Each structure stands twice: as C-alpha cells, then as structure tokens.
Amino acid sequence: MSVSFVPLGLLAVGAWLIWWGLRRRGAVSHLPQDWRRVPGTVLDLGDGVSRPPRIEYGAPDGRRLRVPGPMSLPYGVGDEIAVLIDPADPTRARLDLTEREAGQVVKLLLGTGAVLVVVGAIVALVLL
Q1: Is the Cα torsion angle 21, 27, 29, 31 positive or negative in sign?
Q2: Taking each helix axis from N to C terminus, what angle separates 96-127 and 5-28, rounded to the nearest 10 degrees?
Q3: CB of 7 within 8 A of CB of 127?
Q4: What pTM value is reported for the model?
Q5: What pLDDT sits at residue 32?
Q6: Would you call 71 exposed, middle or buried from its count of C-beta atoms within 10 A (0-12, 13-18, 19+)?
C-alpha cells in the first residue's frame, strides 16, 4: 500500500464516521420532549445473551408495565432506574440510560470523524 493512500483513507473513514454520526443524531433526537421520566425497578438481569433485563415501571393510570433493558445493565435486581414514557401511550417507553448513552456514542462518532478528517487533510498537505 502506498503512503499516498493513507490520507485518502483517513479522510474517507473520517467522513464516513461524521455521516454516520449525523444520521444517528437524527435518530436519537426523535424522542419527543413531552415524554415523562418515571421511576422503574430492575426485575431481573436477563442472561446477557438472548434474554434482556426486565424493568418494571408504573403508568399514570396505575398499571405496572415492563420495558426490556440493554443486554448489559450496570444495575442490580431491585435497583431503581429512570424510564421515559410517552404520556399519550404509556406502553411506549425507553430507558433514560439508553438515551443518554446513545447521545454519547453520537458525540464520539462525530468527534472521531472530525479528528480523522483533520489528520487526513494535514497528512495530505505534508505529502504533497
């Protein structure tokens, strides 16, 4: 592989990460602002492979509903965890933790992509 392909590779990978991060940012921001945060309780941790953890939360009408968690959950059985629910349909719920982590991943994608684009541009200028 020629050294001249290195800046092109950095630029391409950086641009792809930025594109992917911008697409994910759009998906993450689709959570409506009127969703409410309610307390939930970790019922079980799943098996970490095929069965996700289960979290139970209370709907405004008093029903006890459940939402699956991510395969890796940094909580124990019985711990309280914040759940975001749609006030119009309390069966639609997401974990607040998952939404925050998704936002952090998007920032990481955008930051890494920007660094790679800048480094690729500098290396291209040095080699030319």
Answers
A1: negative
A2: 160
A3: yes
A4: 0.57
A5: 65
A6: middle
**53 or 27: which leads in pLDDT:** 53
Instruction: Give the domain range for residue 43.
Output: 5-127
Q: Compute the distance between CA of residue 105 and CA of residue 25 in angstroms, rounded to an integer.
A: 9
The 3-class SS string of the chain reads CCCCHHHHHHHHHHHHHHHHHHHHHHHHCCCCCCCEEEEEEEEECCCCCCCCCEEEEECCCCCEEEEECCCCCCCCCCCEEEEEEECCEEEEEEEHHHHHHHHHHHHHHHHHHHHHHHHHHHHHHHHC
Instruction: State the Cα–Cα distance between residues 82 and 97, nearest whole angstrom.
Output: 7
Query: How many folded domains does the chain comprise?
Result: 1
- Enter the tokens of residue 27: 């998906």
- pLDDT at residue 84 greater than cutoff 80: yes
Mean pLDDT of 90-115: 78
